[in-house]
Amino acid sequence: MTDRLALTGIEVFAHHGVFAFEKRDGQRFVVDLVLGVDTAPAAAGDDLKDAVDYGKVVADVVEAVTSEPVDLIETLAQRVADVVLRDPRVEWVETTLHKPDAPIDATFADVALTITRSRT
User: Fold this and answer.
1) Annotated catalytic residue 49
2) What's 25-50 look like in SS3?
3) Structural domains of the chain sorted by starting position, each given as residue range(s) with its CATH number in brackets
4) Which residues form the Dihydroneopterin aldolase/epimerase domain (predicted)?
5) CA–CA separation, 111 vs 99, rounded Å?
6) SS3 (DSSP) at 34
7) pLDDT tens-digit profile of 1-29?
8) Residue 1, pLDDT score
9) By the 8 A CB rule, do 87 and 67 touch?
10) How far apart are CA 80 and CA 33, in angstroms?
């Protein structure tokens, strides 16, 4: 059985986008994650070594988002998923990347891309 660990609202300021001003000035990105993990070993032993360290996951995601700029949120979402799947306890990850300040000439609430990736 796979349990679900959710980490939501990870806010990061970064420099991604197809326009030069996006890379120059930067903007806010928000990441939501749902990780497929078996939490039974951690629950049984009550030991962090048996659990996914979500503090480390968040730090790794922030580092991934603030690293080398890319044009597309599709590329950035894949980068985030790859980082999360480095932990062998994570069977799959659903990554939602929000770009609420995207340069769109209309009133809108959010642009969000959700991808699901697994180790298989």
Assistant:
1) no
2) HCEEEEEEEEEEECCHHHHHHCCHHH
3) 3-118 (3.30.1130.10)
4) 5-117
5) 5
6) strand
7) 689 999 999 999 999 999 999 999 999 99
8) 66
9) no
10) 9
